[in-house]
Amino acid sequence: MLLRQDRQQQQLRASAQALSQRDPLTGLPNRPHFLQEIDRAAERARRSRRPFAVLFVDIDQFRSLNDTYGHATGDRVLIAVAERLRHTVRLGDGLARYGDDEFAVLMDLAGIGDGEELLRAHAHQFASRLVAQFRPALDLGDTSLDVGVSVGVSVMRPEATDAASILRQLDGAIRQAKAQRHGRVAVFDLTASGDASLDDYQLFSDLKEAMRQGTLTMAFQPLVRGDGQWWSLEALARWQHPTRGFVPPDRFIAVAERYRLMGELGDQIFSLSLQGFQAIRQALRLPGLRLSANISPSQLSDPELHQRLAAMLAEAGVPPQLITLEITEVSILERNTATEANLEQFRRQGYRLALDDFGTGYSSLSLLSTLRPDEIKIDKSFVMALGSDAMAEQIVAVISSMARHMDLQLVAEGVEDAATLGALQQLGIPLFQGYHFQRPLLPEALIAAAA
Q1: Are 77 and 146 contained in the same domain?
Q2: What is the pTM of this model?
Q3: Most confident of 51-60, 286-295, 354-363, 395-404
Q4: Using one digit for the tens of pLDDT, what is the confidence trace for 185-222?
Q5: Which residues neighbour 184 within 8 Å (Cβ) at sequence distance 6 or greater?
Q6: Contact 418, 432 (CB under 8 A)
Q7: What is the DSSP string of 406-451?
Q8: Domain range holding 90?
Q9: How far does the chain reach from its first CA to its final CA, in angstroms?
Q10: Number of domains comprising the chain
């Protein structure tokens, strides 16, 4: 009797362990199991010089699909993608569900050859076959959907160390695949890009620590009228790294986007912006002063963004009518139902919306009817070319005329000198931003400069 109970307990433990390594939706091995498999493959590579590749398969626009059709349909898509991958990967290769919309393949390259180029070509060929398998629409029973995938590939040398370093390298591969638009394959070149990827990951780790320690700061640059009177302040994030020094915002924000940290970072930036804005507004006794805050594409596609911003505004005692949200063209081009809902809520709550870097995108004009902004900011590349480029002057003149007819507020960025200011005023531009008026400064310095 005791022996039978012991066997039953062992069977239960074995069953529980097996279940803990499976994704309950697709039935595939899950992320922890896959990481164990990578560690084993890396050990085999070091011991027997047996090469292997790891592939990340990312479903294109899965968040938009979920927003449009609902999570139930999204789950059916994940199950169908898993099934199609099962029928595509080779016998003996590992397949797992790695994340929400990511699958991973562990590909054995033993017997292919010794040359790195040959190994890379073989892995690329297999990844291309994976992408091609998704050209027929997925059959979901009562409907079918066109679903594409992008694949990032990394061929691992025998000196590959562990799962953590391998996955850091793989991040570069999937970023390259997605950057080339959807349905693409990117093979990560360890020789050319490995150091950069590891450096990016280190910067990501340092950024998380800076957020935990509260060492990020906000600088503010005025948007002014022609007479120099402030109309608004743009909040600009600043990070002074303890060993690297000043890290440009476009660098650390890009890292936050890659590692899916932008939601948390964006909230912290907005909260710091409100704190600094209130300090300046109260110290200088400017109750009507406005705040311009930048919103990234990934933030705008977060369905809870408008709720979190409203809560932070209420806590800071700032009405939304004093806030201008600056949005880029990419945010609108890649919009989904969450984006549309956020924009609608922003309009209802009284925010102003600004289209940033206007004129640089191929579809900027069509976006005016989509976004319906209150304000457009002429990209500084046109402003700084005034006086040396006749075409730039014509473009600014056209934008100025259009803004007047559409009753849009117009801001020129990058005003560096009096000559540029004069040229812009002659073209009818009413608001300006640039070093000619004020560099971005921390709140205390800006208050002192304005006093």
Answers
A1: yes
A2: 0.61
A3: 286-295
A4: 766 644 344 444 445 667 888 899 999 999 999 999 99
A5: 131, 150, 151, 177, 178
A6: no
A7: TT-EEEE----SHHHHHHHHHTT--EE-STTT---B-HHHHHHHH-
A8: 10-188
A9: 88
A10: 2
